[in-house]
Amino acid sequence: xxxxxxxxxxxxxALTKPYWYSEERWAARGLLAVIIALNLGLVYINVQINLxxxxxxxxxxxxxxxxxFYQIGKFGMLAAAYIVVAVYQLYLNQMLQIxxxxxxxxxxxxxxxxxxxxxxxxxxxxxxxxxxxxxxxDLRDFCDKTLNLSLGLLSxxxxxxxxxxxxxxxxxxxxxALSGMQIDIPGYMVWVALVYAIVGTALTQYIGxxxxxxxxxxxxxxxxxxxxxxxxxxxxxxxALYSGEAGEIRAxxxxxxxxxxNWWAIMRRQKALTWLRAxxxxxxxxxxxxxxxxxxxxxxxxxxxxxxxxxxxGQVQEALSWFVTAYPQLAEWKATxxxxxxFHHATERAHEDAQTNxxxxxxxxxxxxxxxxNVNIDLPDGKPxxxxxxxxxxxxxxxxxxxxxxxxxxxxxxxxxxxxxxxxGVVSMxxxxxxxxxxxxxxxxxxxxxxxxxxxxxxxxxxxxxxxxALVDCGLEKLTERLDEEQHWAQILSGGExxxxxxxxxxxxxxxxxxxxxxxxxxxxATEARLYTILRERLPAASIISIGHRANLRQFHAxxxxxxxxxxxxxxxxxxx
Length: 577
Fold this sequence. Notes:
This protein is α/β, with parallel strands linked by helices.
C-alpha cells in the first residue's frame, strides 16, 4: 500500500495529467463531463427500474390487469431511455479515447524520436524492450482501460450510494435472541452485502495478485516474438541464402516457448480466480432472496417488495464488488501503466544523459571548413575507440577514409553527423551548409518510389523530370515509370539497386557535404567509377568524404585519411601521404 501511494499513484498522475492540461484540455474536459453525466444518467435509470420492480410485481400479485399494461409501457420508456444513453455514452467514450491516444502518441513519438533519443536508448538502455509496442499497443490499452475503469469505479460509487438508502429502508430490522439477549440489526441487508463484498475482495486480491507481474511479462514476451517474426520477414533473402531456416525455426520456437510458459502461469492463476468469481457471482443471484425471505414470509413485504429488495441488494453488492469483477482488467491495466512508466523514465534518462554526457558535440560555425577539434571517440562501455585527433576538411575537398575493419571508420562518420554520444570534443560544420550521409545499407521506407528518391524531404520536393533524370544517371532507367508505385522497396530492389537509389538522392538534394560509408560496396568497379564521375560532374563544388577499401576509389579523392590501431588497440587518425 505504501508503494501504491508513494510511488505508483504519483507516477500514474504524471502519466495522465499532461493531456488534461494540454491545448486540447477544454475539449477533453467537456467530453469527459458529458460522459460522466451520461454515466450518472444510467445509474438514475437503474434506480427507476428498481422502483418499477416493486410496482410491477405488486400488480402481478394483485391481479391488476390495467396496472400490468401500464407498468409494461413504463418499462418500455425506461428501456428506450437506457438504450439511447448507453449508446451515446459508449460513442463519446470512444471519441475521447482516440483523441487522448492521438495526443499521447504524438507526445511519445516526439520524446522517443526527437533529439535522436531512440538512437541513444538503443545503444545504452537495453532494459527498455520493444518501444514500438509501448507506443502502438500500450498507449491504446492505457487510454481504453483508464477511462473504462475510472468510469466503472465512478458508476459503482454512485450506484452504491443511490441504492444504499433504498436497501436500508427495504431490509428493515432483523431481530433475534442470542443467549437470552434481544438483538436488533437495522438495515441488516446492507451489512450482509458489505461483509459479502469484503470477503470476496480480500480473496480476489490474494488469488489474483500475481496476475499484474504475469501480464507485464506476457506483453514483453509477445512483443519479442512478434519482433522476431518481423525481423525474419525483413531479412528473408539473407536467411534463404544461408539456408538458415532451421536456425530461425529454433529461435522463433524458443521465443514462443516463453510466451507459452508464461501463458500457462496466467491460465493457472486465472483458473483459480474464475473459480472464485463464478462462485461468488452465482451465490449473489440467490443470496438476497435467502436473506430477504424472512420478511416476505412474515408478511412484512409483498412480492414486489421482495423483488425490489433483491434488485437493490444486487446493485449494492455489485457496486461493493467492483474490485472483484474488474480485477483481471485492473491487472492488465497495471502492467500497461508500469510499461509506459518505465518507457517514459527511459526517455527522460536518455534526455538527461544527453545533457550531462553530450559526447562529441556537433556545432555550426561561421568558418567554411568542416573541422574536428580534440575529438576522441569511445565505445558505449567507455573503452576508447579512437585516440584524440583534430582535422579540417576544406570546401570542395574530396577525402577517402581507409583503415582495417573494426577500426572505427563508421563510428567516425557518426561523430561527424553529431549522433555518437560517447566521447569528447567538438565537430564544427559550416553554418547553413547542407549535409547528406549515405550509409552502406540505404534506408528505404514502405511507400512510393518517389518517396524513396526524395527522402528525407517530402515526396513533392522534386518534379518528375528531375526524379527520372536522377534514375537514368544512376542506371535505374527501368524504374522511371514506377514513381508512384507503392512497394516495400527494400525487399524489391537488390543491394546494388538500393545503393544507386541513394546516389540518386544525393544528385537530387545536391548537398555541400556528402559523406558516404562504403556506399558502393554492392556495386562493381565500373558502376562505382561511373557514379563517382557523375557525382563530380553534377556536384562540382561538393565536398565528398568516402569510406572504402577498394583501390579504385583513390582516383576520385584528393586526400586520404587513414585509421590505424596502435599497440593498445586504440585507433589513431592521421592524414596519409
